[in-house]
């Protein structure tokens, strides 16, 4: 563990091409995850992201077995999952149970597919906990194209999606097509999740898709500021996690999740301190009541 | 279950608004100057689900600046009428125009105030964001252009309802009354011609009921906005109401509160003996369970049957 602070070794490893590729891929992933995060939180989709990532794992496992790119497999799995989850559960009360059922089946199927796979153990393990140092130029290209597409679509639907997420009733009254936006957003989340599966692994995708945004939402109520903070937190977690993991050669995901969790804890503390300081009756309320007396 | 001609035929009192109601009937649905045409026009409107007719033969003009209260027991089609005007529900027969056009989806000419409902405490949304979404939340894109102009309009709308002091707080931490003030700002920030309100005072205390209804009243007087106000309870808005649309079981009556809120009219509508008593400027309806329930917001009753669609 003393290697953790071996800065010379870290600096030396940072010169390597595959490490730089990994950092580039992680930066792209952090950006996409950070931007999507606050909307995932507003729409209560954390569990849905988890379910989608498990099915990305299933897709990746199938691709591994078939000998096609794991990235494409994960992408296909996540998009199919997002569509299934989006179409099956129109009713909110049913949402969680549908995800639970689909998730368990997908994970089981993935395990079976891996059992059939005759190749190296580390390839199998990589799908679950990430294999970011294995990122090559082709996967960076796929990652970047997907990221640009996700961000472009999100830019088009952002305002009505935010409206429908935080204020569904009035959004519907103003003609926002929530029924159209929900599956579109689910697919965007699916694509981003698939990107995450390759780097931090399907088990830990929540660390980037949900935790930074959850932390940001504790310290600001402004949707714009929450998005900026969420991107910053996601980048710090994923880039910091990779750099710290270099010298000891430890799994990337352990560091990524640890950093993002520490940020989350810190934000909760800040939020608790602020709430504690806020008086029970705000001065505005008192003023309002006085104004109302004619 | 359809409207009865005897009730309906007497349902056309002179309009209280500034323009002659009905004068523009049959005109093409084009957006002209607001004062030249009714803000809302229904012609022979009917709404039915299967064999159940909620209301039919409804002719109604709401003039610019007019305040119309829609009353009636649960299941009488009050909310469905709102849904028709919002374009979320098609009429079974007849025609409707809102602000000079078909009830379009996402028209900025329409403002909408829903019931106060608890919002999640952790919701990532400030008061001013809620108001801002009322201005341009239905538009595609991120909305990077004209941010200064947008902020100015939001500030004005927030100030107009006296919410400047808490507009930067998370909405989930505000009181119900504060949230409803912001809802008024959210509905008015787009300068609507027609304001549609769905029980906006429900679950507010008396002080906030008065504050919110006075904000709505001030707006329609200042900007000539027509107000359609769905409510269980007429008393909080009684001084503001120009006309009442009272719906019961497919029958309805339109008129001033003095014309509609009488023992005779309500007995006819409910087909049972109803006493309407005025006590200290308030209207108390006594009689059938359903009729009394119509004026008691927190006690949904079963007498008139059906569920609100």
From TrEMBL, chain A:
It is a multi-pass membrane protein. It is found in: Cell membrane; Membrane. Belongs to the ABC-3 integral membrane protein family. This is Zinc/manganese transport system permease protein. Coiled coil: none annotated. One of its GO terms (biological process) is transmembrane transport. GO terms for cellular component: ATP-binding cassette (ABC) transporter complex. Keywords: Membrane, Transmembrane, Transmembrane helix, Transport. InterPro entries: ABC_BtuC-like, ABC_TroCD. It comes from Goodfellowiella coeruleoviolacea. The chain crosses the membrane at residues 21-41, 61-86, 98-117, 137-158, 178-197, 203-221, 228-246, 252-270. It comes from the Bacteria.
UniProtKB/TrEMBL annotation, chain B:
This is Zinc/manganese transport system ATP-binding protein. Residues 1-37 are annotated as: Disordered. Gene3D superfamilies: P-loop containing nucleotide triphosphate hydrolases. It comes from Goodfellowiella coeruleoviolacea. Residues 40-274 form the ABC transporter domain. Residues 11-35 have a biased composition (Low complexity). Keywords: ATP-binding, Nucleotide-binding, Transport. PANTHER family: METAL TRANSPORT SYSTEM ATP-BINDING PROTEIN TM_0124-RELATED. The keyword Manganese does not apply. Pfam families: ABC_tran. One of its GO terms (molecular function) is ATP binding. Belongs to the ABC transporter superfamily.
């Amino acid at each position: 563990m003393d290697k953790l602070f071996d800065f010379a070794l870290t600096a030396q490893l940072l010169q390597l091409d595959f490490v730089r590729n990994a950092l580039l891929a992680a930066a792209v992933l952090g950006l996409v995850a950070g931007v999507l995060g606050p909307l995932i939180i507003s729409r209560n989709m954390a569990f849905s992201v988890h379910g989608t990532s498990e099915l990305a794992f299933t897709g990746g496992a199938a691709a591994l077995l078939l000998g096609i790119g794991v990235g494409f497999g994960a992408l296909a799995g996540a998009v199919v999952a997002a569509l299934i989850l989006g179409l099956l559960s129109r009713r909110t009360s049913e949402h969680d149970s549908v995800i639970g059922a689909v998730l368990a089946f997908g994970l089981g199927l993935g395990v079976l597919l891996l059992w059939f796979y005759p190749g190296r153990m580390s390839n199998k393990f990589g799908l679950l906990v990430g294999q970011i140092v294995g990122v090559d130029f082709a996967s960076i290209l796929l990652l970047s194209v997907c990221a640009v597409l996700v961000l472009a679509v999100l830019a088009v639907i952002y305002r009505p999606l935010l409206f429908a997420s935080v204020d569904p009733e009035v959004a519907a009254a103003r003609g926002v097509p929530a029924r159209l936006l929900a599956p579109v957003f689910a697919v965007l989340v699916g694509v981003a999740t698939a990107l995450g599966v390759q780097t931090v692994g399907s088990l830990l995708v929540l660390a980037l898709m949900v935790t930074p945004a959850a932390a940001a939402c504790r310290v600001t109520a402004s949707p714009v500021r929450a998005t900026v903070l969420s991107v910053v937190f996601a980048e710090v977690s994923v880039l910091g996690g990779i750099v710290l993991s270099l010298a000891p050669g430890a799994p990337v995901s352990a560091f990524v999740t640890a950093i993002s969790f520490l940020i989350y804890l810190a934000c909760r503390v800040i939020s608790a301190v602020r709430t504690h300081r806020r008086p029970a009756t705000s001065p505005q309320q008192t003023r309002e009541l006085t104004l109302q007396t004619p | 279950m359809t409207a009865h001609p005897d009730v309906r035929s007497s349902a056309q009192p002179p309009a209280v608004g500034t323009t002659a109601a009905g004068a523009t009937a049959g005109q093409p649905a084009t957006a002209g100057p607001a004062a030249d045409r009714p803000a809302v026009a229904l012609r022979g409107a009917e709404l039915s689900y299967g064999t159940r007719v909620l209301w039919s033969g409804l002719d109604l003009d709401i003039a610019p600046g007019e305040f119309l209260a829609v009353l009636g027991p649960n299941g009488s089609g009050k909310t469905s009428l709102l849904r028709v005007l919002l374009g979320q529900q098609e009429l079974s027969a007849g025609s409707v125009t809102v602000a000079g056009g078909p009830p379009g989806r996402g028209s900025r000419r329409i403002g909408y105030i829903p019931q106060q409902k608890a919002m999640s405490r952790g919701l990532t949304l400030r008061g001013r964001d809620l108001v801002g979404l009322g201005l341009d939340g239905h538009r595609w894109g991120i909305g990077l252009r004209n941010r200064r102009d947008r902020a100015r309009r939001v500030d004005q709308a927030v100030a107009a309802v006296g919410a400047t002091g808490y507009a930067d707080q998370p909405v989930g931490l505000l009181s119900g009354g504060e949230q409803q003030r912001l809802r008024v700002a959210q509905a008015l920030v787009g300068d609507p011609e027609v304001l549609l309100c769905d029980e906006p005072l429900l679950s507010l205390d008396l002080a906030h009921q008065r504050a919110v209804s006075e904000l709505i009243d001030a707006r329609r007087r200042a900007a000539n906005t027509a107000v359609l106000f769905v409510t269980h309870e007429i008393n909080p808005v009684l001084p503001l109401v120009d006309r009442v649309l009272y719906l019961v079981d497919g029958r309805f009556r339109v008129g001033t509160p003095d014309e509609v809120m009488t023992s005779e009219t309500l007995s006819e509508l409910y087909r049972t003996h109803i006493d309407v008593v005025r006590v200290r400027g308030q209207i108390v309806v006594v009689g059938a369970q359903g009729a009394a329930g119509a004026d008691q917001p927190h006690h949904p009753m079963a007498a008139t049957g059906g569920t609100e669609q």
